[in-house]
């Protein structure tokens, strides 16, 4: 902060924007009696006190209002109810507690999964960045908020200057000493038109938006850990099925080879049996690779290497204690999803910025003042009539800005319109995500039931074809076809079970799951 020198009276000039400035400076330097000194100090003190009281009153009035347009939440560009139809038949009956009111610790009951989620919340880098963004935005908000208050600085300076006789008013060379100390307020803006208040409001909304962004990252992180955990469990179950199938195929191959050597089976039967064995080996290699990749993905999202003790061995139906997931009304979901709340905070911030842009068209009043002591001797700094004070309000009225203020306002208005579009898009995206998850949930149980029946029927077909082959009724080709069909049905059953459990994790995410901490 630059403070006015208490020993000098500085001549002010009008600037290019027709700056008008009024200053009152009292800087008596002549030595007077002790009584005069005390009287001057008291008079100066009360003069400064009056100025500060007036400033405090103006500060109270300043910032009480802004020129920002009144905020109105845009209408949601989505239906008032979720879609209806055959795909949503299982979601028609809604009961129970909304997902948004249930902490993740209560939603997910699998103990291993809970441990992984806890580790992820402690170590995940994306969540850490989101938390740091909150700290950064909070600091920026404090910076903007501090502009509403005057900044007070303490200064102390001294100077020694030799003036040659040609420049001296006395015609003799002389040395001039100057020393001063003081407290001052420099360029404090009285926010009569709400410019600083609008900027503070914008910073506040940006800070709140970063908090909603952190919540959104946390919800997505919990759902991603659950999804990766389930995918790993499914791939391990698929690998186990492939290994069991290989053992069965290898046994069939050995039997066929013995029959071939005995002249009972043909070379075609032997080669077909070998094909089944090699096919199972291919699947084992593929699922082994997928499992390694699943573990790598889980390590990344958790943020640290995961102990094998808390990795799943197979899919567990005991993922959540929720017997029924309640989607609620679209309006309720929209008010709970942090990504939509984040978009609305950014919209409010853009709306507040319009107020700051509008205030640029009006005068700015700034105050410069200080109190202190000055003397030509360091030892006499606090003696005699060394007390000084100054109070200089300044009014700046924009006359010609070459269209800069209009352009600034236009930018602010366009930013607001962009924020409106982004807010509406966030609502539409959320509606689509929930509708998709509900559509899958409405049909997944039927799909699972049908896939289970298909697997049972295929298993029975394989048993019958094996019996007919052993009695010489059917060829080995029929056995192999039935065996492949059974293996495919079993793999598909694992896939459908995985989709059903992933749908639970997806619903947790898209319904804004997890009560705010």
TrEMBL record:
Q: Name one GO cellular component term.
A: plasma membrane
SUPFAM superfamilies from the entry?
A: Outer membrane efflux proteins (OEP)
GO-annotated molecular function: efflux transmembrane transporter activity
Checking Pfam families in the record gives: OEP
Subcellular location(s) per record: Cell membrane
Keyword list, A-Z: Lipoprotein, Membrane, Palmitate, Transmembrane, Transmembrane beta strand
Q: How does it sit in the membrane?
A: Lipid-anchor
Instruction: Write out the similarity annotation.
Output: Belongs to the outer membrane factor (OMF) (TC 1.B.17) family.
Q: Which PANTHER family match?
A: CATION EFFLUX SYSTEM PROTEIN CUSC, OUTER MEMBRANE CATION EFFLUX PROTEIN
- The name on file for this protein is AdeC/adeK/oprM family multidrug efflux complex outer membrane factor
